[in-house]
């Protein structure tokens, strides 16, 4: 020690400064702007400010730290240790006082702006910066000589202890405040919404004394088929429960267009669907709160992502205009509301945030994908495809980002495929065809065994082999093409042309027998040429959307492809590329982002700055309307070929052999692929 | 005319400038910042911008105005004239174009910030500046090449045409916007709330095309006994209907303390009372909207004033703490809410504003009185007394303003008086006693005749003479004192002492017979010495509150006295002063403000700047808590005397003779006046 005040060095930030002997570590941290959490404001109650002192020589920092560098373990720490236990080596930052030079580590969980772990390093970081935080304060008692409301004295305490602006109080707070202050002996814990463009900063809830629990938020992905919610702890960022329900709107129509039609055909139909989705939402909230064993009233914030039709119906807007050109949205900007305005049963003061929509067919879900995948931050040119019944496509890098949607239709979900089905136990999800024997083998959901493995029949005895799901049909078609059973134009060859008894004449075209389960009381699973046509149209729509964006960007290749959506998570990149669904690209550069829309919702929930970011990004995204782009039609026709009539797919051809077969014997043998303009949009 | 552009001079503002030939008058007005109204933005639709050109020589302005100074009457004006008629000499400012030098008068009704006429010149001006205004705009149609929401294009139009900031939309607007835009052929009229400290500026409603109606606001005075509402046109400021209902909380207790007790004694009692008052409020809204023949959904704003207990119960706050020292308010600041948060059935987006409370016993009603009477703007030292069962007292001038409340009790409303009653037909409201004969005469509510006028009995045959109302009892007691029937200590003399047969022994003290209606089947109306005691206590409480403020101000006289409250409107200043209710003051300086609290509510409704003003004023008001001021007790004892034991009342004595009588024959003959500390507060 020397004459100067002791030196305090914080890691990992590296911030350092000299403080008088006896300065609490929390005070030093605050003065240096070190990110050290605290709810109780240094009163030794909340234990959020835990730190770990390091002792010994630190040549890097040029200090030696004595064992006595911090004050002795005190009664407050002992009480906390007895009650809850403290990780060995940890101290409470508000209790431990600086005695001599010291190096102090702030563990991740003690950082207010802690980083939430994401599995995928290439995507956006999640740094905690939630809308709502907890603050503990001691409040002055009322004084007849200087009359002021209890609220005004609370606001004053929050201002002086926490540097918060002059807060307003929710009406529910007015009701609970006086009993809480008296029960807490003039101390309370407040949940404070820090404000946004719509709402001024506001006290949402008060608890008497120190509130030892947490507060929660919901990240909700409102899909046409399912509604999925992640319940997140707004202090730690942790997902404490996840749950899903079917969208009850399904009874009004399976796909989006049929729901738009329902609202057109039925007076009050839109309102009926609005009520249905909100009721479903409330049921889901009960479910997810029950799963986490928390009170639903502790949910103070919620972020929603959805496609434009769902967005409008959820908000109570008739989606009529979205069903016809020019596909005008009622509003495209992000929306902040109170949950009660949407009849949502959360905390009475809870807030709701809906991400902005990008365009009439590119919704808040696509914005959430953009938020999760951050193309605008990518040096590589990134193509993000959210594969669903309507594909949303983003292409961009730090220079610019383009977006469009393309009407893929429901074929990728197994619909309109003769043996197609939703992904469920018993559905074929992986397929291989031996190029020599042309015989297939496959796996079904619910079993790890291949269909030619011993014990397969026993393994699938419960589920049966019931059909082919979306990822299965993609592998199936690609494997048929690789095995020379299918030509580039999408014709299945005859038994004679292919030399395979699995091919058989089925009306005017040929089909391929994948599995005959009739002996076991199950279905015969075949792929018809009509099925191939459906997949051709779906993948052509997807590819031509991506290709159109590449045109607009002025490139003919992309650096990286991200497949988003639950379906995207199951697609085999190789098979998708054989099909020509996605542009030619090194296979290791094709990755799945899983439910990127849901992740985007979670990011916006946990970090309000991310909301401003995505609002700006969406403003800057250049929207392309495929319906009015002449080249889309041309790309579509080319992309109907497998993999493509004109694109070379050079990288793909280094990996696989694409047999040069042609089963056309003159004269079209089926109706051919529809043009994209004849297809209506679906969700 | 000379080479320069024509000179345009506006009156009454005197603003002037030169504009090119052909400039519309509205454009010239806008460029000069002349206050000329317009809803349609100069499209010749709304007719709000009517102006009157003047012709001939104007030496004062140094111009000569030709008959041709404005362009000819045009087709738009002709269409308006045919449809609705235009006052002769008027032109539409957006159609009439400047041709040569011209003097243009902007009539009051064409001014956006028009002044609303108030009868009393000494009180605050009301200048229109409402929270919510109408704006007509033409909106760009959607374009697939540049997708944006209909709302965003509307917001853009409001920004570019009206210089409005980027507005948000209420959720109801999202629902109605798309059909309205299409029905109005891409024109709509918007009701826009211009924002406040709580809410960002926001579109509240849209109508297709030009909306030709008005929008409305409510100024509500929520009293313990009655709820009164004024429905105001938010464009003209006019009161279009006024109505009142009994406060349904009366079933839980007549006065405030009994309601506070009800909430203490009954679990859920406060919630019950909250529901009751809100239901009563909604019934009143139906009534007032029906009276004005308008749709209740056109009511977009509402301002409420009330005492602290009503304030808390209306907001859903248990008034428990207001029933006991230190009388802590849950909140004292002004409150902005959505009407739906208080379960009020107005427009779904309607806003609510509650004025701030001054202290635990000096509520938003007293703040409203301060807003109406503006003591902080008065050069004279002004005493404002809101006479009710709890008197709120303000004393101040431009230097400072003090406030207190004083528990007068219900005697001034005729309660706790043996023959007392509410002001209603049949109640005695004016009294005179002949100083020579000591015989009384009186008037009752519902008749102009005095009781000794011929035909009086016939005139009151329907109502009867049923009792004495508050203003009647004040005149009665003052007249008894002037006639020498009552001494300064408040004792009624015996028939022998007074020489009046109207005095008679009534138990241990004397009473005075005012009217014997028994022959007509009515009651005998007397004033007992107990009645005198009640009035003494009430007036002593009022006076001692005022006197305490004078002490604090460091004065022993005031320049002016304003009596507020419905009751205050009926009090005779002379009699009030004989009683010693109010400080000595020239009688012509004692005026009634009528329902100043209601007027204050109306001011806050029509001018949002006034809300900021009263918030500031209330912050600056110095609050005095009478209960803890030792001198209050001393003033109270002195003020129990009629008019006062120590104050000279010199001005009063120049107007009236106060007989020096003393009827005390040794030994107190009744219980004497209670001290103020024994009284509980009432409302």
UniProtKB/TrEMBL annotation, chains A, B:
Residues 663-683 are annotated as: Disordered. SUPFAM superfamilies: 2Fe-2S ferredoxin-like (SSF54292). Gene3D superfamilies: 3.10.20.30, 3.10.20.880, Domain of unknown function (DUF4445). CDD domains: fer2 (cd00207). Residues 6-110 form the 2Fe-2S ferredoxin-type domain. One of its GO terms (molecular function) is iron-sulfur cluster binding. It holds the Pfam family RACo_C_ter. PANTHER family: IRON-SULFUR CLUSTER PROTEIN, IRON-SULFUR CLUSTER-BINDING PROTEIN-RELATED. This is Drug:proton antiporter.
